[in-house]
Every structure is written in structure tokens, then in C-alpha cells.
Amino acid sequence: xxxxxxxxxxxxxxxxxxxxxxxxxxxxxxxxxxxxxxxxxxxxxxxxxxxxxxxxxxxxxxxxxxxxxxxxxxxxxxxxxxxxxxxxxxxxxxxxxxxxxxxxxxxxxxxxxxxxxxxxxxxxxxxxxxxxxxxxxxxxxxxxxxxxxxxxxxxxxxxxxxxxxxxxxxxxxxxxxxxxxxxxxxxxxxxxxxxxxxxxxxxxxxxxxxxxxxxxxxxxxxxxxxxxxxxxxxxxxxxxxxxxxxxxxxxxxxxxxxxxxxxxxxxxxxxxxxxxxxxxxxxxxxxxxxxxxxxxxxxxxxxxxxxxxxxxxxxxxxxxxxxxxxxxxxxxxxxxxxxxxx
Length: 342
Ligand code: SF4
Description:
Helix content: 25-40%
CATH class of the largest domain: Alpha Beta
Bound molecules: iron/sulfur cluster
Strand content: 15-25%
């Protein structure tokens, strides 16, 4: 049974100047499962809805549709239900500078969740827990770090404090929303290794949100690829990276540069010219959301593709993999014509 699962999550936002009948759909029909001891990477470009999914899973935001299941049970509504959920599901944010209150010490940041979720602890037990948490995230000497304010710590140390705070209520699920993207390159690997060690020690279910396919492949057991609010591909990490089935995943894998060889992807070999347009066009046609960038687009892509189950736990939302492909509608569309010379 999964620790945390989502079924058909939908989140819409009303934007100024946009009709109430046509809200911006940030998350559309997203289903996923997080299991104990497993890291799942959620990858995709900025604005694809990854962080919105994390906020919905953490119940920091309310979905407009769909269900969240914790240990197989639908999330309980109300304040008590939310508190129970927050004890089990913790989130580490991207920006360690903004996620800690500059007016409070590290001790305060760690003591607060202990008091909230474990009110039976006395002061000495809280002190012991705080020192234990700081040791777990390699912040020593613990008594000196506990007395420090966030501005006295480096970015990496602040993110370790944020991770320790998330662990304070002994959660079963950790949602890491781009936990290293704002850190110095030299310490990113240390933080990712720390998260991986904590996952193994506590049997945590981890959702790792990132742009970086290389670290996703290295640290995650499964990869989910998001594009404009939809999951477009999922499967075991190596399979998704080395043999991507969705044209958008191919684009992502081909875009990971190999510094040793120009024009080559570090993940897939020779970089593929897979884009027809760099900027997504307007939505609302009812067709595949990747249609205006896809080099393999065909007439039937004017209809929304289903999420098609593939071999050994894989799936792709693409008509290329639908069994009932009609030859009359699966011929590649002609390449876009170049604009006439002025
Ligand atoms: Fe490309 Fe069509 Fe597949 Fe969408 S459904 S990714 S447009 S081939």
C-alpha cells in the first residue's frame, strides 16, 4: 500500500482578465503513488505544475478535483485532519533563505514542530530531540548551531535546518521541492546524499521535484514527467531516461548538455533536434498539449491523448503508443513551412 497517493488531482486558478469559465488549469488529472523507502522524481520545465502538485499533496492548497489518500485512506477534512496529514507529510521548500524566520533561532524552528506534534515531551526531551535532529543532518556542534539565527548560517546549513525541521515530527513522506536549486553547486550533491541517507534510514517515501534529469536518474527509483499540468510519462528512472517514449521526455533528455562533447547530451548521446517551436502556444484547442512543439505530431493529435500503459510499469500520454492507432490519422504532419523571406 502506498504511503501517499493522488487520484485525478485538478487545480485551477482564476486570472485577472480571464473569463471565469476559462480558468488556468495548473494541474490536470494527476495521479501518482509514493511508497515507503522509495524516491520518485517529478521533472518538468518551470510552470509545468510540479510545485502546485507538491502543495496539494502537502495540503497547503486545496484541489478543485480529485482525491488524496494517506496510507490508503482519503484525507480527513478539517483542522484535525490537516494536522494529522502534516504530521505524516512534510515539505522542504526550494528557498532556504525564505523558509526560515530570520527573527528566530534554529532552536525555535526545531522546538515548534516538536511542541505541536509531540506535546507530551518535556523540555529536557525536546532538547535531546533537537540535538539528535541536528546531528542527523550533520550540523555540529549542535548546541552552537541551535543558538544561531538563520543569517549566521550558509545556504547549505539553512537547508539542513529546514530538513531537520521537516523530520522533527517523524513523517512518513517527505516532499522535496527543488531542494538544491538555490544552493551553491558544490554543496548540492551533499544535500541530495543526505536526503537519500535519511530516506533509507527512516524508510521515507520521498518526492523529489527537480529540473535536473541527471540527479533524478541517480537518486530516484521512478521518474514522472510533467508538461503543462499533465503527467506525460512515467516509469523506472533508467528506462525513462535511456529510452524515453514521449517526445517531450526526449526533448528534456536531449537538452542535458555533455560538457565533454559539444552538441551531445550527457544522457542520451547525440542531441536530437526535437523541437519545432521553443515557446508553447496557447492552450484550449482540446488536442495534445505538446502539439505545437512536437516533431512527430499527426492529425489525430488534435484530440487529447490518453495515458497509455506501456511495458513494465511505464506509461506515456501520446497517440504514438495507442494500440488503436488509425493509419489514416497517424501519418506525421508536414513540417512547418518557413516564413517567406522579407
Ligand atoms: Fe506528439 Fe501527438 Fe504524441 Fe502529442 S500525441 S506528443 S503531438 S505525437
